Amino acid sequence: MTNIVLFGPPGAGKGTQATILKDKYDLIHISTGDVFRYNIKNQTELGLSAKSYIDKGQLVPDEVTINMLKAEVEKNPEANGFIFDGFPRTETQADALEEFLESKGTKVHAMIALEVEDNILVERLLERGKTSGRADDADEQVIRNRIKVYYDETAILKNYYQEKDRYFGVNGVGSIDEITERLSIVIDRLMK
Ligand code: ADP
Predict the structure, then answer these.
(1) Less Cβ around it within 10 Å: N or C end of the chain?
(2) 94 in ligand 1 pocket by Cβ < 6 Å?
(3) What domains does the chain contain, in order, with CATH numbers?
C-alpha cells in the first residue's frame, strides 16, 4: 500500500493533481472538501452540520471530520493506497490518521506539499470562484480567512511529517503537467 497526503494551502492545486495522480498510480482519492460538498448538496445531517463552518472559511470540527474520513477509507477495503487531499488539517487529525492507519497495518508514506505563495492563491481562488459555484471561493474575505486558518492550524503539519522524515515539498507554480511531473518524481521513489 502507498498512502500519500497531498498538502498545501487552499488553491495550491491539490484537487487537480490528485485527480491525475489517482489514475496514474491506481490510488483512491479522498478529498474531505468534496465529501463535505457532496453531503451539503444532498442535505445530509453531516452536510448540514458542516455547511456553517465551510461558508465562513472555518474548519469543520475534528471529530466530525475524522469520523467521516475513516468511513471513506473503510468503503475501499481493496485499495492499493490512498491520496488524502485536505486531510489532515490539524494536529489532532494527523494523530488520528497515524493511529487509524497503524491499526490497519499501514501508514502515511509521505506528505507531499504543493508550495505556492499567497498572492497567487487568492488570485487562483477568485478565478475559480467565477465558475465553481462555491460560496467559499466567491468572497475575498472568506478566502483570506481560509489561508489564515491554514497558517494558524494546518501549516504546522509540515514539521509533524518532517520530524518523521516523510515531508516532501514541491514547487506548485507552473503548468499542470510540470507539477504532475514534479510530484511523480517523489511518488516513483516511494513506490520503488
Ligand atoms: P480548499 O483546500 O480549496 O480550501 P477544500 O475543498 O479542501 O478546499 O475544503 C473546503 C472546506 O471544507 C474547508 O475550508 C473546510 O471548511 C472544510 N474542510 C475540508 N477538509 C477539512 C478538514 N480536514 N478539517 C476540517 N475542515 C475541513
Answers:
(1) C
(2) no
(3) 2-190 (3.40.50.300)
* Exposure string for 115-154, b = 16+ CB within 10 A, e = fewer: ebeeeebbebbeebbeeeeeebbebeebbebbbebbeebb
Cα 56 to Cα 108, 137, 148: the distances in Å are 30, 10, 12
Q: Three cell numbers at 98?
A: 497515524
- Residues 111, 61, 32: CA angle, nearest 5 degrees: 45
User: How high is the pLDDT of residue 192?
Assistant: 83
Q: Which cell numbers hold the place of 68?
A: 467521516
Closest residue by Cα to atom 2, ligand 1, is: 10
Catalytic residue positions?
14, 89, 128, 134, 146
Which residue in this structure is represented by grid cell 488553491?
A: 11
Backbone angles phi, psi at 27, to 5 degrees: -115, 160
- 12 beta partners: none
What is the residue with the minimal CA distance to atom 15 of ligand 1? 59
Q: What is the pTM of this model?
A: 0.94
Is there a contact between 98 and 154 (Cβ–Cβ < 8 Å)? no
pLDDT along the chain (192 residues), means of 10: 96 97 98 97 96 96 97 96 98 98 97 95 94 92 94 96 98 97 97 87
29, β-bridge pairs: 83
